[in-house]
Design a protein that fits this description.
Layout lengths: L4 H27 L5 H12 L3 E4 L5 E3 L19 E4 L5 H9 L1 H5 L2 H24 L3 E3 L7 E4 L9 E4 L6 E4 L3 H10 L1 E4 L1 H17 L1 H7 L7 E2 L1 H4 L22 H4 L1 H4 L3 E6 L13 E9 L1 H10 L3 H15 L4 H9 L13 H9 L3 H4 L1 E4 L10 E2 H11 L5 E5 L7 H18 L1
Parallel strand pairs: 1-3, 4-8
Antiparallel strand pairs: 2-3, 5-8, 6-7, 7-9, 10-11, 10-14, 11-12, 12-13
Helix pairs in contact: 2-18, 5-7, 6-7, 7-8, 13-15, 14-17
């Protein structure tokens, strides 16, 4: 039987990975000679978070690399991970010295950035699974509305409600992972706010994995429902006890690199108030940042905040309002949310708006918004601004971020649960 070329390519890749893993094991064994269980588990967490082990013919030392890992667009694009360089024939004192540095390395910027790249990959998986479920449906503006429908896969419902059905709060039952799986393959109807909470939970689940997700979090930390109720709950993203890092106008995060923004949620809200809304269901959009290009982060850092973006959104709105037929222009632009039309098929106003919204900060930040486009995992900021032009033509929109636990609390929880799992397995 003649095997296809791709078989041999896959086989070669598999052998290469196996050889690399064997080499890591050999070098780790040398590094961990006479190590404590705590040190062995610390190394395991470092490796889980992207640290590699390579052989050195000279000294045993830490090579954190150069450049900002957080400015890498994704885990797949990471060219060189931080390394522990090990000389297997080195002195025991050198091995001990590097082991003593493990706690410091676990808190290092390089480790944080590889963690954030892992979070970006988790967001990619979660958004794709949401998009693949045709039974995950959007419903209009209802202040956190969510409703679960029984299916063969979920006869024993993994969610319980507190209050009136569909109106107050749902909590996961014992298995938090099973509760997330209902979003992937069950029948669910959610509005924009509930969809955001579901995606935040799903991304966290994909980051930690089923078992560690259940160990690291409690049911009380992931209620879904009306924002006023959620803000009084123990919700880990939006509740009264949440440990959040805030940067609502994006003054700090972009300077730290593209990955620093990933996982943060936010709001695209109307500027002129409720009296300017023709469609109140679109008072605003809750979103979660799924990916950011280095170019987008650089543009935001250079601008200093969202102020320039918000000014551009208002400028685009004014261009449409000043045209001879604002309704028709807004409709044409709104029908080109993906910016697929060639310039020759656009009006002058349409071309002007596209130029205003052409910067990498509009095209390089991919977001999840519940119900934004069925079957599509993420969309860019430009997509949402163009969509809203004909929906509520009497107001521009502006963007801001919510506080988030992903850069602080979750980083520490991730390391702790991985370490604790390792220690438990070592007994």
């Amino acid at each position: 039987m003649k095997l296809p070329i791709r078989f041999f390519a896959s086989l070669s890749l598999g052998l290469a990975f196996a050889a690399a893993a064997a080499e890591d094991t050999r070098l780790a064994a040398a590094l961990l000679k006479s190590a404590t269980t705590e040190e062995r588990c610390q190394l395991e967490v470092l490796q889980d978070l992207g640290w590699g082990i390579t052989e050195s013919s000279t000294t045993t030392a830490v090579d954190a690399g150069t450049g900002n890992i957080c400015q890498t667009g994704s885990l797949e694009e990471l060219a060189i991970a931080p390394q522990l360089r090990v000389n297997p024939e080195g002195a025991a004192a050198d091995f001990e010295a590097i082991r003593k540095s493990f706690p410091k390395l676990l808190a290092a910027p390089q480790t944080f950035c590889t963690y954030k790249l892992r979070l970006g990959y988790a967001a990619k998986i979660a958004t794709e699974k949401f998009a693949a479920n045709n039974e995950n449906q959007f419903t209009g503006f209802r202040l956190g509305f969510i409703k679960f429908r029984k299916t063969d896969s979920f006869r024993h419902r993994p969610w319980k409600w507190a209050g009136l059905p569909g109106k107050f709060i749902y909590y996961p039952k014992d298995d938090l992972g099973q509760a997330v799986e209902q979003f992937y393959s069950g029948k669910v109807r959610m509005d924009c706010a509930a969809g955001l909470m579901a995606m935040e939970m799903a991304t966290t689940y994909e980051l930690f994995g089923h078992d560690d997700f259940n160990r690291a979090f409690t049911s009380e930390e992931f209620p879904i429902g009306a924002f006023p109720k959620i803000e009084k709950s123990a919700n880990v993203f939006h509740g009264k006890t949440a440990k959040l890092i805030g940067d609502s106008s994006a003054r700090i995060l972009p300077r730290q690199g593209a990955a620093s923004l990933v996982g943060f949620s936010g709001y695209i809200g109307n500027v002129n108030g409720k009296s300017s809304l023709d469609n109140r269901a679109n008072i605003g959009e809750n979103f979660m940042i799924a990916s950011v290009t280095p170019e987008a982060a650089t543009a935001l850092a250079k601008a200093g905040s969202f102020a320039k973006m918000n000014a551009a959104m208002t400028e685009a709105w004014k261009v449409v309002r000043a045209s001879k037929n604002p309704t028709a222009e807004a409709m044409e632009i709104g029908n080109d949310m993906n910016s697929d039309r060639v310039d020759g098929d656009k009006s002058e106003t349409h071309r002007m708006v596209d130029l205003i919204l052409s910067g990498p900060e509009f095209t390089g930040i991919r977001t999840f918004v519940q119900g934004a486009h069925p079957g599509v995992a993420t969309t860019d900021i430009r997509y949402h601004i163009k969509r809203l032009l004909p929906v509520n033509p009497r107001t521009p929109y502006a963007i801001r971020l919510y506080g988030s636990p992903v850069n602080g609390d979750f980083f520490e929880r991730y390391k702790k649960v991985r370490f604790d799992s390792c220690m438990a397995a070592s007994k």
